[in-house]
Amino acid sequence: MSIPVDPVDVPARVRDLARDAALAPVWRNNDGGLTFRTDDGRFIKHAPHNAESSLADETVRLEWAGRFLRVPHVLESGQDDTHEWLVTRALPGESAVAPRWVAQPAVAVRAVGEGLRALHEALPVEECPFEWSVPSRIANAAGRGIRIPDALREPPPIDRLVVCHADACCPNTLIGDDGRWSAHVDLGLLGTGDRWGDIAVASMSTEWNYGPGWEDALIEAYGVEPDRTRLSYYRELWNAT
Ligand SMILES: Nc1ncnc2c1ncn2[C@@H]1O[C@H](COP(=O)(O)OP(=O)(O)OP(=O)(O)O)[C@@H](O)[C@H]1O
Ligand SMILES: [Mg+2]
What we know:
Elements: H1 12-18, E1 23-28, E2 34-38, E3 42-48, H2 55-65, E4 74-79, E5 83-89, E6 94-95, H3 99-102, H4 105-122, H5 134-143, E7 161-164, E8 173-175, E9 181-184, E10 191-194, H6 195-210, H7 215-222, H8 228-240
Antiparallel strand pairs: 1-2, 2-3, 3-5, 4-5, 6-8, 7-10, 8-9
Helix pairs in contact: 4-6, 4-7, 6-7, 6-8
Adenosine-5'-triphosphate binds near residues 43, 169, 174 and 186.
């Protein structure tokens, strides 16, 4: 998954959704999904049907989370036999992996860590209708034909139950001109779980985007001492599912 550098074929559906607006490709994910920005202030996600999470799942989660936190506002969504789409209003800020932030990893890593903490503080766990617990993640993986190693079936006791982002990789935090987090995107799996599920992945993902040496800086920005047992468990679970 990355910012596209080569020309991108614009799907016919995306052209229709853009109406008269011009389109710029901004993201290609690992499952063949594409995201475009329009020059009239929208983002269009278009992706093949995906068994792990759907854009319909993301739509209901964005609508729920948007009551408490700055996340994309859904303008329209839909599906056909092969693909789904989700059109949202553009939020201010740029992805934490935009070139300007990759050039300033200390600023970006702090913004992602602080932003993740703010997300966990803002979303009310007792009201959340969605789950991202270890059993639900193992069941989701099983539905995709993935069998989790036995050693991962018994998670560490929950440290703090929060509403997790559930894909807390750096690209899913937006950063404003002031270098602070401004919004969260990509909430298709959002649900309740131990906060270390997110912290483990957010910190691990710094290496993919900024190189080695930033993991603990993210955890410090989040505002906790590294819990090595839970970090390694949730990183292994992420990699296995
Ligand atoms: N409403 C929005 N406002 C601003 N930027 C957005 C918006 N929606 C998406 N983006 C940008 O587009 C990128 C891709 O969107 P998103 O992360 O939702 O796609 P994805 O294909 O599900 O990503 P992933 O590869 O993480 O699965 C984001 O990282 C963000 O930079
Ligand atoms: Mg994303």
